[in-house]
Amino acid sequence: MSDIKIGIMGFSDKEHYGQAMCVFLIDFPHSRPCRLARALAASVAIATALIRPLSAQQPAQGDYIQLYNRGEFRASYDAVRANLAQVYEKRNEDTRVPTDFISSKKLESAVRINDLFRNRIVKAFFIEDNSQLFTSHLYAARCCYRLDEFDASLNHYAQALRFKKLEFEKDDTVFYEMAKVFEKINNAPAYVRMLEAAYSMNAANYEYSREIALALYRTPEKKKAIYHLTRYLDSRGDDVDDPGLYLMLGNLYEDINRYLDTVHYYKKYCALKPEDGFARFALGYLSFSKTGDYALAEENLNAALSLLPEEDVFRRSKAYEYRADMAMSNLEFPFAVSLYLETIRFQDAVKNQINKKKEDVAGLKGAISDVKQSLIKNPDYATFNEYEYLQEEKGRHEYQLREVRYQYDKLNAGRVRWNLAACYEKLESFDDAIRYYREAIAFNYNAGGARDRIVKLQLKIKRGY
């Protein structure tokens, strides 16, 4: 009985783009059926393992795109890297032929590294228009971005651009995606550059102008920010989703001292957000101090007083002060007096806060001194914790005291009292005028002038005219 002989023959299978294997049996006379069955099973198993199509071993281009769309970014990245490895393996035009195998008799035919270095040629950034490599690198960059591998993402984006002739109004998304990567790594200059590149590729996408303006808002490039923000708002017409953009544009114009434009955009914001007391106060101040529109200033300052929170003593005091200044300028002295007195009322409230904070700090200092003395005599962990707590509280109260003092200094208490005295003088209420001139001296505001006015007023009172 002769042994079973198994043969394996290769053939080309165009459907699977590879070499498949076929199993056949030869020379099996006198073989028992069971041995024949085992042999057939073994041969089929070998053939099954070898006949796997190439598409099952190598990821197709659509595979990594589908994985990416399903949110499987790591699997998609692995698939696209395998795809790129296969493509670059066949691109050997830039690969140097190895010379290790050359015998010593043919060393002169080997490439010398010095000559290779001297004769090197810088390759242009753009290589060729290759949609396969462009798409592969693009999706690799997107996967890396999703995986927080930002350096690798930027490298793949750069490689993608080397294999694509850029098309306007189409490839701007690549630059925008690169901008988002730079934003993630807090590279603000590169972020803006990529946004501007995206804008130059597709100016019809006004969202690019919005992002550029927001990115430049706190930079010295105010005029460029104004251009892009104005462009975006004009494109939206009356359908502006965020009224705060009008406020930002107004602030940008204020930064370059174009106050009429500032007021214009503040008015647009306040028309959409009339309940914003802080914006109404700012518009009132600008109208009063920068453009001289007293009617608009009075309207908005009056509205701010009804909208601002009661604890916002600073703005409420300044609103009364600005209204009083306008009334005094318009020779409405009785109305100015009433407004200045309201201003002083708020200033006195802040002064009371300062005195209260001083008392709190003094009390804490006394408590700290007592605890410290006790701690020196009898060291104790609980007492030490109390000592540390009191120190922190003292520091917090001292900081608050500095803040309140700073706010009080900005209330111009001396100037307000001088103006109030001047109004009383115009109303021929000389005793009240002298009182507030003296308070102006106490605040060291135009003390010399206040003394002169007091002397003249006392002379008037003495003479009776």
Task: Characterize the structure shown.
With 465 residues, the protein is mainly alpha-helical. Among the domains are: 5-57, no CATH class; 412-465, Serine Threonine Protein Phosphatase 5, Tetratricopeptide repeat (Alpha Horseshoe). Helix content is 70%, strand content 4%. The protein is built from 21 helices and 2 strands. The chain has helices at 33-50, 54-57, 61-69, 73-90, 113-118, 131-146, 150-161, 172-184, 188-201, 206-216, 222-236, 244-255, 259-272, 277-291, 294-307, 313-329, 333-377, 381-409, 413-426, 430-442, 447-463, and strands at 5-13, 18-26. It has a two-stranded antiparallel sheet. The chain is elongated.
Put simply, the count of helices is 21
Taking the sheet with the most strands, its summary is:
2 strands, antiparallel
What overall form do the CA principal axes indicate? elongated
Q: Level of helix content?
A: over 70%
Q: What's the rounded overall pLDDT mean? A: 85
Beta-strand percent range: under 5%
Write down the secondary-structure element order: EEHHHHHHHHHHHHHHHHHHHHH
- The helix-and-strand class reads mainly alpha
Low-confidence stretches: 1-31, 39-59
CATH architectural category of the domain at 412-465:
Alpha Horseshoe
Radius of gyration: 42 Å
CATH fold descriptor of the domain at 412-465: Serine Threonine Protein Phosphatase 5, Tetratricopeptide repeat
Strand order of the largest sheet: 1-2
Separation, N- and C-terminal Cα atoms: 152 Å
The count of strands amounts to: 2
Oligomer: single chain
CATH class of the domain at 412-465: Mainly Alpha
